[in-house]
Amino acid sequence: MSGTQVYKIYIKATPERIWEAITSADWNSQYGYRGRTEYELQPGGAVVGRSN
Questions:
Q1: 4/38 Cα distance (integer angstroms)
Q2: What is the DSSP letter of 20?
Q3: In contact, 28 and 34? CB cutoff 8 Å
Q4: Tell me: the pLDDT tens digits for 16-38?
Q5: What pTM did the predictor assign?
């Protein structure tokens, strides 16, 4: 059996604030992920995830 499931999440925040939350290592280590994650936001850029 195959199918597609779509989930929608509504967040009461501006797109800029959401982007900051996703890409800020300080924010995502405190709220989003257990370890600090850093993004190099350019084509071919690195994503570095550090565990606690």
A1: 31
A2: H
A3: no
A4: 988 888 788 777 767 666 677 78
A5: 0.47
